[in-house]
Amino acid sequence: xxxxxxxxxxxxxxxxxxxxxxxxxxxxxxxxxxxxxxxxxxxxxxxxxxxxxxxxxxxxxxxxxxxxxxxxxxxxxxxxxxxxxxxxxxxxxxxxxxxxxxxxxxxxxxxxxxxxxxxxxxxxxxxxxxxxxxxxxxxxxxxxxxxxxxxxxxxxxxxxxxxxxxxxxxxxxxxxxxxxxxxxxxxxxxxxxxxxxxxxxxxxxxxxxxxxxxxxxxxxxxxxxxxxxxxxxxxxxxx
Length: 239
Known about the structure:
globular, Pirin family protein, Pirin, mainly beta, Jelly Rolls, RmlC-like_jellyroll, seven-stranded antiparallel beta sheet, Quercetinase_C, seven-stranded mixed beta sheet
């Protein structure tokens, strides 16, 4: 098994006043030639957005974009629909930019900060028709068991969101002392494990809140929670 630890404090950081952004990979003004992506995973931004602030209308194309709010309310509008859509904690949003679209994202609250992860995964097919979807995922359903959030379009699982890549994004909330074995869908894939909160151990390495581990060249691995922990697994093709 090949592993690389990415400590929270080693991420790129940008303070824009209205936006506090931590970049797991090279993004915007943060450039690290040794940390451009992990397989098909190109972006994992950990953003805190001030009340009523956000990103004005801007374009995307040929990227699978997944947004996971943790606190506050995200409001989204794109060129596929004129109405503002709300995305709240325990909901996940996916957007296939495909041939191209325009969208806006703002903090829908005038008083509370918005905390979220935004993930970009490179698609296996280019120039597909743009699409949007979102779903609610129960926190109870991931208590000490894996909850699949996002899968390939080829999956027939009605409970997950779909993207144009042979990837899987999943969450688990592990209680202190509990262990979990993650089995890869494809042993040639890799898994980016992001610690949302808590403290856990993988392969004798301790990971704290917002620490991550890149894992590849294995078909499974085990993590054990040293305290109550929330984990995000992003499994992607490595080529």
